[in-house]
Amino acid sequence: MVVFPELSLTGYELDAEPVSPSENALRPIVEAAGETGSVSLVGAPVEEQGRWFIAALRIDGSGATRAYRKSHLGGDELDRFNAGDGPTVIKIDGWRLGMGICKDTGISEHTAGTAKLNIDVYIAGLVHLLEELEEQDARGQRIAAVCRSYIAFASFAGPTSGGYDSTAASQRSGLRTAR
Q1: What torsion, rounded to 10 degrees, do the Cα atoms 75, 83, 70, 36 define?
Q2: How many Å apart are CA 48 and CA 44, to the nearest integer?
Q3: pLDDT by residue (tens digit) across 13-72?
Q4: What is the Cβ-side half-sphere exposure of residue 22, based on CA atoms within 13 angstroms?
Q5: What pLDDT digit, counting tens, does each position of 96-147 carry?
């Protein structure tokens, strides 16, 4: 399992064109997943039935599909995107993975709804400012406690658009888990 940050395919560019799961540009990720037997969750803007969403795409050796749409939008996201359907679980190799994207991780109702799905791991792509690192860590601890699960956050580790010149993950390396 490889997890990427929110909007990782475009950077935190709220005006980026949507990415289609059938897009040829995803072929290198599909091929890498096929060669390694892995699954990637990558962040991208998507369009479905004329509505735009911030989403996580599930990519494996057979291609890409939309796995999750961000439920809780904030700031300028509200001007362009629609909210997703709420807590979601996907299954990979017998593991139940609950999903969130950035602001979802700070919404207690989202965490509680995800916990009810009896997950093994909570996965989220994020983009936080450097000064939000403590809040990012606190959210991870709260989610792990409520969901009684492992957590995996992927946050930008360098600058991206949207005013994120210095991101939280630029101060981290390695993997942290809690159960």
Answers
A1: -130
A2: 13
A3: 999 999 999 999 999 999 999 999 999 999 999 999 999 999 999 999 999 999 999 999
A4: 2
A5: 999 999 999 999 999 999 999 999 999 999 988 788 888 989 999 999 999 9
Residue among 74, 59, 63 nearest 126 (CA): 74
Half-sphere exposure (CA, 13 Å, Cβ side) for 112? Answer: 3
Fold exhibited by the domain 2-171: Nitrilase/N-carbamoyl-D-aminoacid amidohydrolase (3.60.110)
DSSP 26: G
169: which 2 tokens? 């993950």
Q: What angle do CA 142, 70, 146 make, to 5 degrees?
A: 20
Cβ neighbours of residue 151 under 8 Å, at least 6 residues apart?
121, 122, 123, 124, 140, 143, 144, 177, 178
State the Cα–Cα distance between residues 70 and 26, nearest whole angstrom. 20
Domain positions in the chain: 2-171
DSSP state, residue 120: S
Alpha-carbon gap, residue 165 to 55, rounded angstroms: 22
DSSP state at residue 50? T
167 strand-pairing partners:
129
